[in-house]
Structures are given as C-alpha cells and as structure tokens.
Amino acid sequence: MLTAILTDIHANREALAACLAHAQEKRAQRYAFLGDLVGYGADPGWVVQTVMEHVARGGIAVQGNHDQATVQGGSASMHAQARQVVEWTRSQLAPEHLRFLEQLPLTQQSGHCLYVHATAADPGSWEYINGTLEAVKSMHATQCRITFVGHVHEPALYNLSLTGKISSFVPTGDSSIPLSTQRRWLVLPGSVGQPRDGNPAACYALFDDASNELTYFRVPYDHDLAAEKIRAAGLPPALAERLLEGR
Known about the structure:
This protein is of the alpha/beta class. The chain contains 8 helices and 12 strands. The chain has helices at 13-25, 44-56, 65-72, 80-92, 95-103, 132-140, 223-232, 237-245, and strands at residues 2-6, 30-33, 60-61, 107-110, 113-116, 146-149, 155-160, 166-169, 175-178, 184-189, 202-208, 213-219.
C-alpha cells in the first residue's frame, strides 16, 4: 500500500491542500497524519475536518502537542503569544473537532510501522528527535521496523543496523530511498504547514510497503496567501513571516 505521511500541518490550509493534491497525483492509497493538525495557522477548522474525513476512510492520525494544548486550553505558564494562538484556535473549532483532537491516540501501529508525533520512547513527553541519541532511544522503544515521527519540522532519516550502528541522512529536494528490511528506520518527513529548514515549500513523504521505498517531496504552495490569512486573523505577525522564510 502506498501511504502518504503528513505531519505538523499547523492549520495551514494552502499547504495541506497542495500536499494532498500532489499525493493524489502520485496515487496514494492511504494517508497518515502525525499530529499537530492545529496551531500557528489560520484554518484549523478546515484542516481538522479534512483529516477527520480521511480517518473515516481508513486513514491514520495521532495527537500532537499543539492538538493537546488546544483541547486543554491555554495555561498561565504558557507564553502570552502561544496562549493567544491556543485560545483563538479553540474559538474556531466546532465541538466535534475538539472531540476528535481529544480522542486522538498518541501512537498507532499498522503492520511493521509505528506512527507517533514525538518519540516512541515516551510519546507524551513531546521530546524532540534532534540527533542520533534520541533516534536510537525511540527506535529501541518499539518492535516496529519503521517509525514515522513528526514534531521536528525538518526532514531527516535515521537507520539502525543489526549490529547497532546508527547513521543518518538529510534529504534534499525530492529524494527516493529504499528502506532495507535488514535495518530499523526512523523517518522524519518534515512539516507540511511550517517547514523550518530554510525552504518554504511544504514537506511530506510517501511510503510504499510493497517495495519498501520511501520518497520525500517538497511541494510549493501559496504561502503568501497563508501568511496573509494569519495577519488578517490577528495572530502574531511572526507566524506569517516564518512561512515566507521557511524558518
């Protein structure tokens, strides 16, 4: 089955629509969403509704830290701007959208693949996988051969050999990689809605479990429109600037 792996959409309708259209052209058969559907962007309702529809048709979705924060509401310990975004996002979501976010699991498993927003080692800690130590810890926490992870906003790929040797790879542009069945893999597809690697094009990946081939894609989208919507909603202007710069 050909599965589209999308994460960190962050309420960016334009980016998600572009990636879904691209995946459809590539004949994706299933869609997996690795959390942070909301936060930062101006279209949380549309994004959550779209993901709900894919899940109803057999798609996979897990909860991210921004999804959890939106359900729970802003806390006094949060930065003022973060609390503003959370409360605004809550005001834009219908009750069924909030219920959907609340009921999302922290992990899902399908075959030899595990789907999680942060780390398999402790999904609710929201620990970032910033290097090989965190990647190995996450891979050792599951029996699954492939772990798909979001949260980091930059594409990367880690693998662990049968002898315990770890190596990593940072894909550039559109990259296809065969995932050897003799290794364990941790896949970071990058962010759909807020890339942070200096390239404003949306990121997502396709995984073919028949050929064990993983393909990373960069998909241009109308980030000017997405940024203008953020400004029009009265959200912090820095969130709009990040989309234009890919930072």
